[in-house]
Amino acid sequence: MPSSTVPDTSAIRPSPQPVADRVRVAAALVVAAAWAVAVIRGGIRGSWADGPLGTAPLTLGLSALVAMALTVGRPWRRPARLVLVRPGRLRVPAGSGFGWYVVAQVMILTGSAVPHLDVDPLRDVPAVTLAALAALVIAVLVAAVFDGRPRVDLTSHGIEARDPTGRRTIPWAALAAGRPLRQPHGHKLVLTVVHPELVEHRGLVRGSATAPLLTLTWLRVQPWFLADALRWYVDHPAERVALGTPDGDERLRRALGVG
Questions:
Q1: What's the CA dihedral at 168, 173, 175, 177 to 10 degrees?
Q2: Measured between alpha carbons, how far is 211 from 192 in angstroms, rounded to an integer?
Q3: Which CA distances in Å does 4 have to 128, 182, 184, 252, 255?
Q4: Is the pLDDT of residue 74 over 80?
Q5: Angle between helices 125-146 and 96-113 (to 10 degrees)
Q6: If 0-12 CB within 10 Å is exposed, 13-18 middle and 19+ buried, where does residue 136 land?
Q7: I need a surface site. Which of 14, 39, 87, 191 has the fewest CB within 10 A?
Q8: What is the pTM of this model?
């Protein structure tokens, strides 16, 4: 069961743009490209390296999945803080778990698709299609990491939730008063929308219009802290203009009971 209180830490804290995930993903792309070239040119097949290197992407991918699982677990121990982007915009950034997930997908999809590229594209359409789909998935995920997605931004206008494939903007005025309450789900937060006509969608975004879901699995934030912060701005319209300012930070910290 989660603790009844969130960790005692600053509610809003400036933070530089994280680069660790980008470095990991870039390294995975280099390794995947080098392995693909070796396979396509026949540098692995029939050599002493056929055994250990032939399964290298899958092995690295499974290792990244283990790292991801260790990172996304125990959401109640995540930091109770928002990142200050600039006055008027606070951010819930992606945690390192998403970066590990993308690394795993790069390696696993590479290991699955590249061996099928040594075919005649006119005769083996399924293999070529598989490789093309793998490349598309990798491109979408890598673009998301380098764009800092997934993330959730709090602005004076409302909530901006950016996923790897789309964006959803939910104005404060669209949300029900007194919501969201603390929920027992550490990996998701369901909002209550009473004016769905105010919600804006862009890209491939799915979900209920009146109960949109914020996926917390990849986000670096304590779930109950986020629910409390959102409810504070829903119920106190005058505080929205002070969002991300020192005075607004102080009042938010007092309201949420964090140091």
A1: 160
A2: 5
A3: 53, 10, 11, 18, 15
A4: yes
A5: 160
A6: exposed
A7: 14
A8: 0.84
